[in-house]
Design a protein that fits this description.
single chain, mainly beta, 2 helices, 44% strand
Length: 339
């Protein structure tokens, strides 16, 4: 029997994960090499154990688990008129038993399963005490003069550095937060204009290998994805939102006072009041998680000193976030806790 379908392959986005608040999210990316003939469909199966037992199924390669262990996500391309998945029993049916029904496993049904799949190791990780705290740029805009510009920041005094850990400051550029420099003090000199961000990293050199960082290639998000704060397994803390700075060719016009924002109450339940000084007109308010992901964004009109009410979606999970307000020519940020 000749079969044209092909399940293709998938790649795990993060192979090592911690249970965070009792859960871990397993997500894989399709490699765009599947072949799905007319009348066929694709489904993804989550399996666990040495003889992988199927425990979940989904139309996308993304699953949530609540126990530690080794898991694999397998892609299955099949025709539901020839392969009846109604006989599949989660927690009992194995990947091997499905495979034996298929032509690729010696059976008579045209269907294709990726037997290798994407592998994940989920562990019960101990709480991590490290906290990168907050970092405030001494100036949100600095001038590019005689081929260079100097930027620096002030730590917020809320660092938590466990015994054996070290503090390192990283400078990134652009929206992708590509790492450009590292320093033991929050001060950097750059030789080109652009958007930069200074970040605080609290880490243990014995568990986080920064020798793999390639300046100009590695991003801050590449590091954050390995840390427990983003579901990884390494105890360390990175202030992903950091302290943004714009390096510009100055016009000679005197700058206004640095814009700032404040909000209350904090902690809150996702409803809070924000007021800005030095921020006017249409602005973009962003709420950013510790892992650098944008969890909420909205446009609003802000007048200096006038309170504005904000209510986050009910699906926003509790945690520590950075609220950033971006105006056309200014920006400011502040930390917030949602309970």
């Amino acid at each position: 029997i000749e079969c044209d379908e092909d399940a293709g392959t998938i790649t795990a986005e993060n192979t090592n994960l911690c249970l965070t608040d009792g859960t871990a999210d397993l997500t894989a990316t399709l490699n765009d090499d599947a072949v799905i003939p007319e009348g066929f469909q694709m489904i993804h199966l989550l399996a666990t154990g040495p003889d992988p037992v199927i425990v979940q199924g989904a139309l996308t390669p993304s699953f949530e688990v609540t126990t530690a262990g080794t898991y694999t996500i397998h892609t299955l391309v099949y025709d539901d008129s020839t392969l009846d998945l109604g006989t599949l029993v989660f927690g009992t049916t194995t990947v091997a038993s499905i495979n034996t029904m298929l032509v690729q496993g010696g059976g008579g049904i045209c269907a294709s399963m990726d037997l290798v799949g994407a592998t994940f190791i989920v562990e019960e990780c101990l709480p991590c005490a490290a906290d990168a705290g907050t970092l405030q740029a001494n100036a949100n805009t600095v001038c590019f003069v005689a081929g260079s510009a100097t930027m620096n920041a002030t730590p917020g005094g809320d660092l938590v550095v466990p015994e054996g850990f070290e503090v390192l400051y990283l400078l990134t550029s652009g929206e992708d937060l590509i790492i450009r420099q590292g320093s033991f003090t929050p001060a950097f000199v750059v030789t080109s204009i652009g958007q930069y961000t200074m970040h605080t990293l609290v880490y243990d050199p014995n568990t986080l290998d920064l020798g793999e960082v390639v300046f100009g290639v590695t991003s801050a998000l590449d590091i954050a994805s390995q840390l427990m704060q983003a579901g990884g397994t390494i105890c360390a803390a990175l202030d992903v939102p950091g302290a943004p700075v714009s390096v510009e060719v100055c016009t000679g016009i005197a700058d206004h006072d640095e814009p700032v924002i404040s909000l209350w109450p904090s902690p809150n339940d996702g409803r809070f009041t924000v007021v800005g000084a030095g921020l006017h007109g249409s602005v973009n308010l962003q709420v950013i998680g510790l892992d650098g992901r944008l969890v909420h964004e909205q446009r609003m009109v802000m007048r200096s000193g006038t309170p504005v009410q904000v209510e986050l979606p009910g699906s926003t999970a509790p945690g520590v976030f950075t609220v950033r307000v971006l105006a056309e020519d200014a920006q400011a940020a502040v930390r917030i806790v949602i309970e």
